[in-house]
Structures are given as structure tokens and as C-alpha cells.
């Protein structure tokens, strides 16, 4: 998601209330040669606020130990070719990361000669398959920011390629790592989750399935507490809101509400065996970055490919329900269709 860089947001992203916004006040980054072996990070795509935010956190000279000594050393800036909100950000974000000691390269091939692991940050999911393939072929662990791809078929193709090249891939919204959602999902707050409602902004981008672009945040929150096993969804929508009701195999019901009008936020309500709990507040990018670093260290994604693909099948089934005037649509039906498209490539 995109956040303007005011002081409040900067503090939220970094947890560093005492650090000013002016880049010249940041200490000069250590030379690239001082980066520990295996910890050189490359970024693909400088059209999202995630790129400078992650770079600030990793390249801060006094970065916390839970970030493992990883540093962003190189970036390939090109992101979306035609989404104006993305294209317009590239020049500014390129300058920001350059000031943090990052080398700007002209191709993904060049990037891969300089780094050990990769953050695929391109805001546009459509080029993700094309951008991910050379990273996987090079054997470098890969985090793919939301959305995984511009279609469910492409998302399947990415994970199939990861399996083929035996390279682990991880993708997640930062909303998964809200402390409250994590604790509820682990059974620490209300026991077994019997049902849940999650909400988030759900701005649309015409080049992507409706919920892929921004609704992913609330859907991922829903899955964090409900787990996998959704069988079918029904979607109701207006110009200002979406409501997607999913039925899980064990009879539980989980609901996502996406808001497109007025002020909206991130959170939800969870109904459990021992009580009712609220999810939130959103805690910024840092908790996700800690998980990414652990993934780079271990090679074990904290969210399985199967769960990530089910999340995207949930959103694709919601689109199909909309196209069919709100009838129930099974996740398996959209997966079968998408697998067929992916296999035909």
C-alpha cells in the first residue's frame, strides 16, 4: 500500500520516533563491501512506498539485530508500464534509495550479479511472472510483494516455477503481521476461531481483478485468523463497498468487507470459543520485514504456497461471483480454470 511520508507515517513504519525525516541527517551507509556474505538484497521495482521504506529500515547504520545485517545494495527501478500512480513514483523513490547507498542498475540480469536475495516490489502484479523467472533460475530466494501476480493463473505459474527450480518464494500483505491477528490465529486470545469479519480499503485498479490491488490486505487478515479451507464465496457489491462471504469446509463463515468511499481502516472482529476479539491496529511494514529476513535466512516461507494461492483463489472466486450476479462460486472451480491457463503457456 502507498503511504505519504509525513512524520507520523515514518514513525509508524520504522518505530523510530527520534529519527527526523530529512535524508541528509541519516548517517552515511556502510560500504557495499562490508555487507556480510549472503546478505546483499536487491529490489525489483521502485514504484511503491514499500521499496524506500524497506531500504530505510535495512540500511540504517544501527539497524536492529532482528534484521540480520541484510542491506539493500542494488535496485532495478522499472515497475508498471502504464499505471500512472505507479509510474509517477519511480523518479522520486529512485532518488530516495540512491541517497541510502543503493546502486541503480539497468536490468534484472545486472541486478542478479550483485545480490544474494531479492525483494520483488513492482506495484503492478502483471509483470511479476516475467520478473520472477530470472530470479528463480538464478537460485535466489524471493519475496514477492502484493499482489503476487496480475492473475490467478500467473500466481500459479510463479509457484510452479519456484518448485521446478527448487527456490523458495514468500508473499504476504503486511496486515498478516498485526500482533492481534497473529495472537488470535495462534489460539491465544479466543481459543478456536469460529468465524471472523475483516475489513480494509479496497481501491480498484482496472488492470487487475478487483480485490488483488488493495482488497488483498483485508482478505489476508481474514485468512490469518481463519486459516485455509474455504470452499465457496458469495459477493455483494455497490460502488462504495464489497462484501464477500466465504464458507469454510467445516461450516465456519468468514467475511471480508472492502471499502472504497470515505475514510477506511484495517481490522476486524473475531468470534471464538472463549469470546470475541478485535483485530488491529495496523503496525506498519516492519513486522513483515522481520519475517522476510527470517525467510531469507532459513529458506522456509512463513506462509505456504498453498495458502497464498487459496487467498488469490478466494479473490478470483469473488470476481466470478460478481460477474454472475452474486451466485456462490467454489474456489476449486476457479483454480481448475486457472491451472488450465497456466499449463497452456
Automatic annotation (TrEMBL):
InterPro entries, A to Z: Gfo/Idh/MocA-like_OxRdtase_N, Gfo/Idh/MocA_oxidrdct_glycsds, NAD(P)-bd_dom_sf, TAT_signal
Every Gfo/Idh/MocA-like oxidoreductase N-terminal domain range: 40-170
Domain of life: Bacteria
One Pfam short name: GFO_IDH_MocA
Protein name, entry field: Gfo/Idh/MocA family oxidoreductase
Source organism of the structure: Nibrella viscosa
Amino acid at each position: 500500500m502507498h503511504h505519504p511520508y509525513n512524520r507520523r507515517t515514518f514513525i509508524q513504519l520504522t518505530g523510530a520516533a527520534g529519527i527526523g525525516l530529512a535524508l541528509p541527517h541519516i548517517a552515511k551507509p556502510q560500504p557495499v563491501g562490508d555487507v556480510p556474505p549472503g546478505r546483499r538484497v536487491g529490489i525489483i521495482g521502485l514504484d511503491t512506498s514499500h521499496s524506500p521504506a524497506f531500504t530505510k529500515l535495512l540500511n540504517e547504520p544501527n539497524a536492529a539485530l532482528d534484521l540480520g545485517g541484510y542491506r539493500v545494495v542494488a535496485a532495478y527501478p522499472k515497475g508498471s508500464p502504464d499505471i500512472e500512480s505507479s509510474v509517477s513514483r519511480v523518479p522520486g523513490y529512485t532518488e530516495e534509495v540512491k541517497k541510502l547507498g543503493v546502486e541503480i542498475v539497468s536490468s534484472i540480469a545486472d541486478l542478479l550479479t550483485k545480490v544474494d536475495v531479492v525483494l520483488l516490489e513492482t506495484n503492478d502484479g502483471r509483470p511479476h511472472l516475467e520478473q520472477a523467472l530470472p530470479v528463480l533460475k538464478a537460485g535466489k530466494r524471493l519475496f514477492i510483494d502484493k499482489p503476487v501476480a496480475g492473475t490467478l493463473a500467473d500466481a500459479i505459474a510463479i509457484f510452479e516455477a519456484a518448485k521446478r527450480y527448487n527456490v523458495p518464494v514468500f508473499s504476504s500483505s503486511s496486515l498478516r503481521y498485526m500482533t492481534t491477528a497473529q495472537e488470535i490465529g495462534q489460539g491465544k486470545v479466543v481459543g478456536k476461531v469460529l468465524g471472523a469479519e475483516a475489513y480494509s480499503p479496497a481501491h480498484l485498479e482496472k488492470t487487475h481483478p478487483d480485490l488483488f490491488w488493495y482488497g488483498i490486505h483485508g482478505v489476508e487478515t481474514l485468512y490469518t485468523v481463519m486459516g485455509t479451507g474455504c470452499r465457496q464465496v458469495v459477493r455483494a457489491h455497490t460502488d462504495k463497498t464489497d462484501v464477500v462471504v466465504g464458507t469454510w469446509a467445516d461450516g465456519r463463515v468468514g467475511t471480508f468487507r472492502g471499502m472504497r468511499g470515505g475514510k477506511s481502516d484495517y481490522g476486524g472482529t473475531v468470534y471464538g470459543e472463549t469470546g470475541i476479539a478485535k483485530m488491529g491496529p495496523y503496525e506498519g511494514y516492519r513486522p513483515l520485514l522481520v519475517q522476510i529476513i527470517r525467510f531469507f535466512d532459513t529458506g522456509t516461507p512463513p506462509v505456504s504456497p498453498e495458502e497464498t494461492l487459496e487467498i488469490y483463489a478466494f479473490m478470483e472466486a469473488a470476481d466470478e461471483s460478481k460477474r454472475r450476479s452474486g451466485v456462490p462460486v467454489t474456489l476449486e472451480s476457479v483454480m481448475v480454470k486457472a491451472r488450465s491457463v497456466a499449463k497452456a503457456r
